[in-house]
Design goal:
Number of helices: 16
Strand order of the largest sheet: 3-4-5-2-1-7-6
Strand content: 5-15%
Number of domains: 2
Helix content: 55-70%
Structural class: mainly alpha
Distance between the termini: 51 Å
Oligomer: single chain
Radius of gyration: 23 Å
Number of strands: 7
C-alpha cells in the first residue's frame, strides 16, 4: 500500500477507529486497507477482540478464507491465554490456601476475566496482577517462592527501586509455566504525586462468587485502568487500554445502579481527578463513549491548564495508535517518548527522577562503552592467536 510518511498516522487512525467503532465495516474494505487493518489490530493486541465482535455479529464465517483464518487464529490464541490465566489463578489460590485471611484482589486482565466484563473477550492475557495489603506482602512472597515462583536476578539498585519506591514487588515467574505474577500493594508508586489510599480499594472490593479472589469495585476498576494508561509509561498497549476504559464505562453504566453518580465523587476521594479527567476525555474523543453531561462538567474540575491540555490532546492522538508497519511516523515516536517522560515526572520527585534516569543511562550506555575496549582487546587476541 503506497502511503506517504506524513499521511501514515492519519491512515492508521482512520482505519483503527473504524474497526473499533463498527467492526462489521472491516470486511467491506478494499484489499489493501483490509490487510493493513489486520496488521494494525494485531500490533495493538486487539485482533482477537475484533474477531470476537465479528463472531458475535455472525460475520466471521463470511470472510474470505485468508481473513477468516487470521481471525480464527487470534481467537484460538486468546482462548488459550485465558485458560492459562485461569489455571495460574487456580495455582496461586492453592499456593496461598493457608493465608486465607489475606485478601487477594485480581486486577487488570485477570479481573476482567473473573468479572466477565466485555473486554475480556478475545483478550491476550500476559500476566497476573494481584493487589495485596502491604503488611501481608512478605508472607505472600515467601509462600510463592516456596511453591515454585521465582524472581529474576536484579541489580541491587533495581531491587531497591521496586521495594522502596514502587507500588509492587519485583515480578515473580513460575519455574514450569513461566507466567509472570506481579504483587501490588497500591495502584500508584509510593513517590507519585497522587495518593490513592489502598485501604479504600480493599474496603470496596467485591468477592467473586465461588472464588478465592476479589475484584475492584466497578468505579475503582475503571479508575485503575485509567491510572495504568496515564501513569504506566509503556505505550505499547495504550490503545487497548483506552478500549478497556470505553468497554468498562459502557458495561457498568448499563449494569451497575448509580455508577455515574458514584464516579466523580469516587475519583476525587481517591485523589485521581486529573487522570480521571483524561480518561473520560479521550474515551469520548476517540471512541464516542457516552458520558453524562453532569459527569463531564464535574470532570473539568480535574483538567490541567489550557496549554498543557492542548499538548496532551496532540500527544495522545499521536501516541495511542500503533505505528504504520511500512511508514512509521516520527511524530508518533516523539509523542510516545514525551508521554513516557511525563509518566515518570508524575511518579517521582524531580531529584529522584534525575538520579534514576542518570542510572538508567549509565546502565544502558556507560557500562557498554566501558566494556567495548575489553571486547576489542579480546578480539585482537583471538586474531593474533590465529
Amino acid at each position: 500500500m503506497g502511503v506517504e510518511p506524513n499521511d501514515s498516522a492519519a491512515v492508521v487512525r482512520g482505519l483503527v477507529l473504524a474497526a473499533l467503532r463498527d467492526p462489521c465495516t472491516v470486511p467491506a474494505l478494499p484489499t489493501a486497507h483490509l490487510d493493513l487493518t489486520l496488521r494494525l489490530m494485531r500490533r495493538a493486541r486487539l485482533l482477537g477482540r475484533l474477531a470476537w465482535r465479528l463472531r458475535q455479529a455472525g460475520a466471521l464465517e463470511a470472510q474470505p478464507r485468508v481473513v477468516a483464518d487470521q481471525l480464527q487464529s487470534a481467537l484460538v490464541i486468546s482462548e488459550a491465554r485465558a485458560r492459562a490465566a485461569r489455571w495460574e489463578l487456580n495455582r496461586l489460590a492453592w499456593a496461598l490456601d493457608d493465608l486465607r485471611d489475606v485478601p487477594l484482589v485480581a486486577m487488570k486482565g485477570c479481573a476482567y476475566l473473573l468479572a466477565g466484563t466485555p473486554n475480556a473477550n478475545g483478550r491476550l492475557f500476559a500476566d497476573v496482577d494481584l493487589l495485596v495489603p502491604e503488611a501481608d506482602l512478605p508472607a505472600v512472597e515467601l509462600r510463592l517462592h516456596e511453591r515454585g515462583w521465582m524472581g529474576k536476578e536484579l541489580a541491587p539498585y533495581d531491587d531497591l527501586y521496586y521495594r522502596r519506591w514502587t507500588h509492587e514487588l519485583p515480578p515473580m515467574t513460575h519455574v514450569e509455566r513461566e507466567v509472570e505474577v506481579d504483587l501490588h500493594h497500591s495502584i500508584l508508586m509510593r513517590t507519585a504525586r497522587l495518593k490513592p489510599a489502598p485501604a479504600l480499594l480493599f474496603e470496596a472490593a467485591r468477592q467473586v462468587p465461588g472464588s478465592r479472589y476479589k475484584v475492584l469495585a466497578p468505579v475503582d476498576m475503571v479508575l485503575h485502568a485509567i491510572v495504568h494508561l496515564f501513569h504506566g509509561g509503556d505505550m505499547d498497549d495504550a490503545l487497548r487500554e483506552i478500549v478497556d476504559i470505553d468497554d468498562l464505562l459502557r458495561h457498568y453504566a448499563a449494569t451497575e445502579p448509580g455508577f455515574w453518580e458514584q464516579f466523580w465523587p469516587r475519583a476525587a476521594a481517591l485523589d485521581l481527578a486529573r487522570p480521571a479527567f483524561y480518561g473520560l476525555r479521550y474515551a469520548c474523543m476517540l471512541l464516542g463513549t457516552p458520558v453524562p453531561e453532569s459527569v463531564s462538567a464535574a470532570s473539568r474540575g480535574g483538567a490541567p491548564p489550557v496549554p498543557i491540555l492542548r499538548l496532551m490532546d496532540r500527544l495522545v492522538r499521536d501516541a495511542l495508535f500503533p505505528q504504520h508497519p511500512d511508514a512509521p511516523s516520527r511524530g508518533a515516536e516523539l509523542a510516545r517518548l514525551l508521554l513516557y517522560v511525563r509518566s515518570h515526572w508524575v511518579k517521582m520527585p524531580a531529584p529522584m527522577l534525575a538520579r534514576h534516569l542518570a542510572y538508567k543511562f549509565y546502565v544502558r550506555h556507560g557500562r557498554r562503552a566501558a566494556t567495548e575496549p575489553l571486547h576489542r582487546a579480546d578480539a585482537g587476541a583471538v586474531v593474533r592467536s590465529r
